[in-house]
Specification:
Residues 446-656 form the Peptidase S9 prolyl oligopeptidase catalytic domain. It comes from Lysobacter stagni. This is Prolyl oligopeptidase family serine peptidase. Keywords: Hydrolase, Protease, Serine protease, Signal. By secondary structure, this protein is of the alpha+beta class. The chain has two domains: 3-55 and 395-665, Rossmann fold (3-Layer(aba) Sandwich); 237-382, TolB, C-terminal domain (Neuraminidase, 6 Propeller), CATH 2.120.10.30. Helix content is 20%, strand content 35%. The protein is built from twelve helices and 38 strands. Strands 1-2-38-37-36-35-33-34-32-31 form a ten-stranded mixed β-sheet, sandwiched between helices. It is globular and about 70 Å long.
């Protein structure tokens, strides 16, 4: 008997035993093609697939490191992102790796070493159990560096390339320890095995000491230094007892450190992450960005010790800054496009700075700044599928009031608003609310081909809110959704629905919600509370019950997630989870629902998707369900992404836009 026939027989038998008051489960139409299983998803119209094609063939390039006068970048030319080498501005992109799985971290051997190559991470089917490999550029041979089983991440060379550190769960499968090896011998040993999640941050210039960090949550980290030979760990004192830290680097003298933190300063609490300099030998301490009321996001120091670069996240817009060392004098920079600046890296001679830049109307590309001349040169120019970039929609930043107050005034929630440029006069536009994951993530005005397609081809507006709990807006805002305050962030979506209803160009009767991971939970929770005001929702790898999620997530993540969501072993917290989890209130989800999932997801197990699908269908509601056997926490293979995107657009056409509008797009 075929799986489909077996399912129908089971459904008929079940229907015969249902009580009279129960709703019969909707008939499920299942299709399996390769690694994809689709349930209730109609055949994709060829016209829609063709219309989407150019948007799905946009691509970006990100800086991965300097290799002499050349640079390594990550970009996709086939199914997945791979390592490429570029040796001059807008030069040929030479592909170096050709794996069916996308590469994770890429760490290039330092210029001072005698090594010519790079380390990269790669998993299988999105399971995130990355293995680290050495790629030798001279021979083009690849060598496995890790055990082939554990989860390995954060590769880091010493400045002379003789030592190599990384984080791994190899010791017990639960804790993320720091391992180290002499790269010539490649004999690994555990360096830090204190329990919890540890990361290697920076080697001292002589390679004898290693700055390390224990991560507990977005609001709590513990920095320290370890003697590499003896393994002796010394934790640094944390002002206030608890704080968040990001970048941590040795100063060029190997004595002082630069770091990013929200520790109190002179006993005064700090809302934002600031760039700091501390010399323990002299006791000198300085906050270098005290005048900037926003988070410092990242930092990098040139090998020649003459410059430090850092970025600030200012209401979702990134700014690049460079300081001369040791004076901390600002360096004049060329004007950069407005957007997001990441992956900052100095050239081996310290005279150039590579950055990855992304904006709402341009995908990621690599630019290089000549520091002495303050000149900006573009090194890569990624394709936009043959589309006209001048027609891309740039979002506006809006702030809408929510349910509670700050200093006697309504709290304002920031959101990026993509509005179709050529909307007919007087037309009411459908809206998709796109909710980020994390929950400590942040929606940024980055290139989003889906938002461009919705705006330019389907006439749909998109809103990306940064509800409470989002990073980038200070320590207080970050903690507003913790533990039993979880549903306050859902109320921020309710307030956004109110705001939509007040906008003359938006149609409050045609609102959809979309989100992945924690954003998927937010989709389900929004449908649970506001199904009378939301027509449809797309949940990607979302949490449907916090208790079952914490029970089934990979063991190396469990304590980290408990720090954010609460501990399911605590009866009081378990009661909260039962009250707020969509699985327990599936009967209140009356809007149309599309659930998409990767089978190998180590963060949010696929069982979270299957149980909500079953529960909603059990109440007589049809659900579209999509499962990829070769994906994990999100989709990274182009064929899979293309199918999911086309299915999502069809879902919006049928369940949000309306039949008349759908016909107009075919």
């Amino acid at each position: 008997m075929s799986p489909r026939s077996s399912f129908l027989v089971h459904a008929l038998l079940l229907a015969c035993t249902l009580p009279v008051a129960a709703q019969p489960a909707p008939r499920v139409s299942r299709e399996q093609v390769g690694t994809r299983t689709s349930e209730n998803i109609p055949a994709l119209p060829p016209a829609l697939v063709e219309q989407l094609n150019r948007y799905q063939n946009t691509r970006g390039a990100t800086f991965a490191g300097w290799s002499g006068d050349c640079m390594l970048i990550s970009t996709r030319f086939a199914e997945t992102a791979q390592a490429h080498r570029v040796c001059q501005p807008l030069g040929m992109r030479e592909q170096l790796t050709f794996y069916p799985e996308p590469l994770a971290a890429i760490e290039v051997a330092p210029a001072k070493s005698k090594l010519d190559g790079f380390v990269f991470g790669k998993d299988v089917g999105g399971n995130e159990f990355w293995q680290l490999h050495w790629f030798d550029l001279a021979s083009r041979n690849t060598t496995l560096l890790t055990d082939g089983k554990a989860r390995n991440q954060g590769p880091l060379f010493s400045h002379d390339g003789k030592r190599f550190a990384w984080s791994s769960t190899a010791r017990n499968g639960k804790d993320t320890d720091i391992w180290v090896t002499e790269f010539a011998t490649k004999q690994p040993r555990v360096l830090v095995a204190e329990g919890g999640q540890w990361n290697a941050m920076d080697f001292s210039p002589d390679g004898k000491r290693l700055l390390v960090m224990k991560y507990v949550s977005a609001a709590e980290s513990y920095p320290g230094v370890v003697d590499v030979d003896s393994g002796k760990l010394t934790l640094f004192p944390v002002d206030g007892g608890k704080a968040s830290f990001n970048g941590f680097r040795f100063a060029p003298d190997g004595r002082a450190v630069y770091f990013i933190s929200d520790e109190p300063v002179k006993g005064k609490a700090q809302e934002f992450h600031t760039l700091r300099h501390h010399d323990p030998a002299t006791g000198r301490f300085e906050v270098l960005t005290s005048a900037t009321p926003w988070d410092v996001a990242d930092l990098a120091i040139a090998d020649d010790g003459k410059h430090l670069a850092y970025t600030t996240n200012e209401d979702g817009i990134y700014r690049l800054h460079v300081l001369s060392l040791p004076s901390h004098t600002p360096v004049k920079l060329p004007e950069l496009p407005v957007g997001v600046v990441v992956n900052v890296g100095f050239s081996p001679d310290g005279k150039r700075l590579a950055v990855t830049m992304n904006s709402a109307t341009s995908p990621s590309d690599v630019y290089v700044i000549d520091l002495p001349g303050a000149k900006l040169t573009r090194w890569t120019q990624s394709e936009v599928g043959g589309l006209d970039p001048s027609k891309f929609v740039a979002p506006t930043l809006v702030h809408y009031p929510t349910f509670d107050e700050v200093d006697g005034k309504a709290r304002l929630i920031p959101a990026f608003y993509y509005r179709p440029a050529n909307a007919p006069a007087g037309a009411k536009l459908p809206v998709v609310i796109n909710i980020h994951g994390g929950p400590e993530g942040q929606s940024l005005p980055t290139f989003n081909p889906t938002a461009q397609f919705l705006a330019n081809e389907l006439g749909v507006a998109m809103l990306l809110p940064n509800v409470r709990g989002s990073e980038g807006y200070g320590k207080t805002y970050l903690g507003l959704d913790n533990a039993d305050k979880r549903e306050d962030s859902v109320k921020d979506i309710g307030a956004l629905l109110d705001w939509i209803a007040q906008q003359p160009e938006l149609d409050a009767s045609r609102v959809g919600v979309y989100g992945g991971s924690y954003g998927g939970y937010m989709v389900l929770a929004s449908l649970m509370h506001y199904s009378d005001r939301i027509k449809a929702g797309v949940d990607i790898v979302g949490i449907s019950h916090f208790g079952t999620f914490l029970k089934n997530t990979e063991s190396y993540r469990r304590d980290l997630r408990r720090a954010e969501y609460g501990d399911e072993r605590d009866p009081a917290m378990a009661k909260v989870f039962d009250a707020i989890s969509p699985l327990n209130h599936a009967d209140r989800i009356r809007a149309k629902l599309f659930v998409a999932q990767g089978k190998n997801d180590p963060r949010v197990p696929y069982t979270e998707a299957e149980q909500i699908v079953k529960a909603v269908r059990g109440n007589g509601q049809p659900v579209w369900y999509l499962l990829f056997d070769d994906e994990g926490h999100g989709f990274r293979k182009k064929t899979n992404v293309d199918y999911f995107t086309a299915a999502t657009m069809l879902f919006w056409q049928q369940n949000l836009i309306g039949e008349d509008d759908t016909a107009a797009t075919k």
